Amino acid sequence: MVAVGAALADEVGFANLTMGLLAERVGVRTPSLYKHVGGQEDLNRRIAALALSEAADTVGGAVQGYAGRDALAAAARAFRAFVLEHPGRYAATIGVEPSGPDDPLATEGQRLLGAFMAVLRGYEIAESDVDHALRMLRSLCHGFATLQADNAFQWSVDIDESFEWLIAFADRGLRAMQECCGRRRSPPF
After folding, report:
1. How many CB atoms lie within 10 A of CB 18?
2. How far is 95 from 68, CA to CA, in rounded Å?
3. 0.85 exceeded by the pTM?
4. How far is Cα 99 from Cα 31, in angstroms, rounded to an integer?
5. Mean pLDDT score of the chain
6. Cα separation of 102 and 20, whole Å?
7. Environment class of residue 39 by beta-carbon count within 10 Å: exposed (0-12), middle (13-18) or buried (19+)?
8. Taking a C-beta distance cutoff of 8 angstroms, is the pair 61, 106 a contact?
9. Which ranges in 129-185 belong to alpha helices (H)?
10. Which residue, 21, 62, 79, 129, could crosslink 74 as a Cys pair with Cβ 3.0–4.6 Å?
11. pLDDT tens-place string over residues 108-167
């Protein structure tokens, strides 16, 4: 049921996903869905956990065997492709809070973060800067991918070229942090 709901969210948009629409899709009456999910909130949380799991598999698989800029590029491209292919289920992950450390949202979210942490290991970022670097990478990748998924890049410059520019920009920034700060606790700005 969750996989069908996730596919439907990709099709109609996460904000438009309802239990009624899902029931219609699977050919049952809405009350029959409650045998499988506890309601709209439960469905949304399960879709978010599924999306985080899939994104973690996608990004984690993409970075295997790479380091530095190559790992960064592989992770960024895989994340972008995931969001573009699954915009509805990815939207389910935004703003949802895990209920505790054993919540699938927490465990799958940690797996996705782990894939991006693997990228950062190639840059030898100081431990005190890892959270900042992760937020920077997430902001860049999330921002670009969600803007593209929403068709927000409507001018004539090639989108793929812009994305490669973003990867090069992030790589230069991470290398600059490594070179100038080494293991220092604060950034040079």
Report:
1. 15
2. 30
3. yes
4. 26
5. 93
6. 30
7. exposed
8. no
9. 130-149, 159-181
10. 62
11. 999 999 999 999 999 988 899 999 999 999 999 999 999 999 999 988 789 999 999 999
